[in-house]
UniProtKB/TrEMBL annotation:
Any single Gene Ontology cellular-component annotation: membrane
MF terms in GO: NADH dehydrogenase (ubiquinone) activity
Single GO biological process annotation from the record: ATP synthesis coupled electron transport
Annotated protein name in UniProt: F420H2:quinone oxidoreductase subunit N
Ranges of residues in domain NADH:quinone oxidoreductase/Mrp antiporter transmembrane: 118-423
TM segment ranges: 6-25, 32-49, 69-88, 100-118, 124-142, 154-176, 188-210, 243-259, 265-284, 291-310, 325-350, 370-389, 409-428, 448-467
Length: 488
């Protein structure tokens, strides 16, 4: 058997262990760990891009499958991790135990990649827990009160959601007698509407609802994003939460679509509440960090429209899944860049404002004059988050809304467009502060190791929406997923 397709995962796993051993290097271990992490992630990313749209290959008794779906999510996770590690070189300059930071980040990335390639509920759950256990201590990496509080909250809610999810999966196993996801779909097709199936479905939706931060399971996300270090928040919002969506796509769509019950109404209600509450609360925030956190909740609602469409109309399933994948990709880039810019501004504001006010919107006043590069990148990212053409954020939202229209769900497409219009209010407000107000800060340093990943994310936001292979990959991944569930 050819194991070459598993090289990206093996490289990330080996580098995570080697980087952890760098704590024994007296001088230079910090830089060694950082640059080795960059080399490992870049090598793994190149391998994933080289293989791209692979023919599905199964390993270890079909529990692991490498296919276009796993490849596109591995690419997203590796891009986010790589950009965070580049920023981490500057972030860790004055931090002890930087080697532990890089090692945990690599283990978290490995866990996400395992979820992406899982074709069985057991490795999927193991990957979930590996990524979660690695990110809990990252949230408290600076060992200050807010970070520790965020980490504890993240740990408790993460443990609770894992327990709920595992409980639901155990019922599904009890009904089907298998943990292989395609076989779960086949078995459920002949066990329609049993109480155990519906109870298992309910718990699985609740478990993924927590992990995707859908309303009403979203409160942990905002508090954790607000309390964690900026660079860790960038990782959590751009990659960790996206891991829940690939797991959701596999289990909810492939495994549970076979139930053929009208659960789309409940999912639609969750999606609408998530979009609306996230945007309404984001609009009244004065902290840009919390605004982006609530905005992330709203974007989870946009992505959840894909689940609604699939459960309503299988004829629109392909475009819905492709739209969900595209928006996961675009939002990962947009949020990553925006949170890193918040880190740049907050660092400059620390000496000027009271502790806890470094994220205030007032600090962005006049940023266009005192930090023109940062302001320009932030403006592009804000417009893309708001869905302004011709950015990637516009095209990915458009595909999702079109899928809803194709599925005769015009009402949810209209609600999505109205929510997107509302979000433009608070995104444009940041741009107006940067260009139409006088500066309140004397100077904002624009360190290269922060600006470089932000610029790369912004270039991706500008170009990928106009790059046809992006859509070809997303649609091929969608077809792969639906074929696994016997839908195509």
């Amino acid at each position: 058997m050819n194991y070459e397709l598993l090289l990206p995962e093996l490289i990330v796993a080996a580098s995570a262990l080697i980087v952890l051993l760098a704590v024994f290097i007296k001088d230079g271990g910090k830089k060694f760990a950082g640059y080795l992490s960059i080399i490992a992630l870049l090598t793994a990313l190149i391998l994933v891009l080289k293989d791209g749209l692979v023919t599905p290959a199964a390993y270890f008794n079909d529990t692991i499958v490498i296919d276009p779906l796993s490849q596109i999510f591995n690419m997203i996770f590796l891009v986010v991790a790589l950009l965070v590690v580049i920023a981490g070189i500057r972030y860790n300059e004055d931090k002890p135990n930087a080697e532990v930071f890089y090692s945990l980040l690599l283990f978290a990335t490995l866990g996400m990649m395992i979820v992406a390639i899982s074709n069985d509920l057991i490795p999927l759950f193991v990957g979930f827990e590996l990524a979660s256990l690695a990110t809990y201590p990252l949230a408290a990496f600076e060992r200050e009160k807010r970070g520790i509080e965020a980490s504890v909250k993240y740990f408790v809610i993460g443990g609770l959601s894992s327990a709920i999810l595992l409980f639901g999966l155990s019922y599904i196993y009890g009904v089907t007698g298998t943990t292989k996801i395609p076989e779960v779909a086949d078995a459920l097709a002949v066990n329609l509407m049993t109480p155990a199936s519906l109870l298992g479905l309910l718990f699985v939706i609740a478990g993924f609802g927590f992990k995707m931060a859908l309303v009403p399971f979203h409160m942990w996300a905002v508090d954790v994003y607000d309390g964690a270090p900026y660079i860790v928040t960038a990782l959590l919002s751009s990659a960790s939460k996206k891991m829940a969506f690939i797991a959701g796509f596999k289990v909810l769509i492939v495994g549970l679509i076979a139930l053929r019950v009208d659960w789309y109404i409940g999912i639609a209600l969750l999606a609408v509440m998530t979009m609306t509450l996230g945007n309404v609360v984001a609009a009244v925030q004065k902290s840009v960090k919390r605004m982006l956190a609530y905005s992330s909740v709203a974007h989870a609602g946009y992505i959840a429209i894909a689940f609604v469409v699939i459960s309503k109309s299988l004829s629109a399933a392909e475009i819905a899944v492709a739209g969900g994948i595209l928006h996961i990709f675009s939002h990962a880039l947009m949020n990553l860049g925006a949170f890193l810019i918040v880190a740049v501004v907050a660092t400059a504001a620390l000496s000027k404002v009271k502790p806890g006010e470094e994220d205030n919107l007032d600090n962005y006043a006049g940023l266009g004059r005192i930090a023109p590069v940062t302001a320009l990148l932030m403006a592009i990212l804000m417009l893309s988050l708001g869905g302004v053409p011709p950015t990637f954020g516009f095209f990915s939202k458009a595909v999702i809304f079109l899928s809803a229209i194709k599925a005769d769900l015009l009402w949810i497409a209209i609600i999505g467009v109205l929510n997107s219009a509302l979000s433009l209010f608070y995104y444009a407000r940041v741009v107006m502060y940067m260009y139409y107000r006088d500066p309140v800060l004397d100077r904002v340093s624009e360190p290269l190791m922060y600006i470089l990943p932000i610029a790369l994310a912004t270039v991706g936001v500008l170009l990928l929406g106009l790059y046809p292979p992006t859509y070809e990959w997303a649609f091929e991944a969608a077809r792969t997923l639906l074929a696994m569930g016997g839908i195509l």
